[in-house]
Amino acid sequence: MTLRPLALAALAALAIAPATAAAQGGMRAGTPIKPGEECPAGMTEVRPGNCQAPTLPAPSILDYRPRSTLVTTEHLVPKAKYPAIDYHGHPTQLGSAEALERLGDDLDRIGVRVIVAANNISGDNLVRTAALVAASPRMKDRVRLLTGINFSGVGPGWAERAVAQLEADVKAGAVGIGEIGKGLGLSTRKADGTRLRIDDPALDPVWQAAGRLKMPVFIHTADPSEFWQPIDYKNERWLELALFPNRRYPADQYPSFEELNRERDAMIRRNPGTTFVVAHMSWYANDLPRLAKMMDEMPNMLVEVGAVLYDIGRQPRAARDFFIKYQDRILFGKDSFQPDEYPYYWRVFETRDDYFDYYRDYHATWKLYGIDLPDEVLKKVYYKNALRITGGMPQQGWPR
User: Using an 8 Å Cβ cutoff, are 149 and 218 in contact?
Assistant: First the structure.
């Protein structure tokens, strides 16, 4: 059978069409990979099973800052809808009456009524700071202090001294204990030189005294789990670890993330009469099912949200469900006192906004979404839960 010239031309056009389309779309001959394999370094998968390198030099992780073309409704929230208690405060303006006034201006601007200074101070330092706050007509009901525990030299006689200091600090005005830092478990040593485990029974008298005195214990354990993982390009905290080498925890020098959390949980379980507030949502805001299991198993544990907004805001549906379910056991806290960063929390908690920036690029390369909490949940997270568990807080003037 002989094809006519017109048919031959049509077949030729079909034969070259894929190549032409590929050229127009930027497709080139690539590198094939098998199912389950990854592309070689410097390439990305452009079609199933086919990898290709870009024709332009690739920017560094620091320089790639794409502009989003997404058009969405924006609801900026410069001030919290309800007056908030910052349970994880580290204000630096506690050294003079003038500094306290500046702190008051900052708190007014962002809608924080009370800041709890979790600066781990004790003894004479606590007495001086409490006196300074009490002498301020404007700030006497806006700053509350947590006392610290000195874990150095744990051994014979340590618990008696620590409890006596705790009782003195309560009389001086402390409303809780903390922030107990991550050094407990990571690096603090006992008098005999061994690592001080978080669940060491030698510490129990302090936790039991806290329960007797109705002093909540605010504790920070470990750091994000990625700080223990290899610093490779699959580690979503790569940039942070590259910027801050002291945040890396090599396995041959430190206990594991899992071990630290096991110790902390064992300590909480062994002291059911004491209220513990776990900072940073226990670094499990990225694993809410795991955190929910902990909440269910330890009814004397609450969590605080400081410095994990990047995880809350990237899973708006799951986070909203979690906050509603555990609304009586979540406290607002910010950690580093940077007033311009608080509105990001208000926006995540109070709006339904889509796809907006987080405030520190090295924490998160992704965007945030609002979780639109109901008003009653907002009130509990912002102030009601803190008022319920913490004595010595101002009780008047809060919205019902």
Answer: no
CA 225 to chain centre: 12
* Arithmetic mean of pLDDT, 156-175: 97
The overall average pLDDT reported for the chain is 93
Q: Which fold has domain 84-389?
A: TIM Barrel (3.20.20)
125 Cβ contact list (under 8 Å, min separation 6): none
Compute, in degrees rounded to 10, the torsion defined by CA atoms 260, 266, 270, 276: 50
- Classify residue 210 as exposed, middle or buried by CB count within 10 Å of its CB (0-12, 13-18, 19+): buried
Written as six digits, the tokens of 129 are: 């700071």
Q: Which of 134, 160, 114, 88 is nearest to 383 (CA)?
A: 114
The set of residues, in sequence order, having a beta carbon less than 8 Å from that of 386 and lying 6+ positions away, is 85, 87, 114, 116, 331, 332, 393
Tokens 């504790």 -> residue: 219
Looking at residue 61, its pLDDT comes to 87
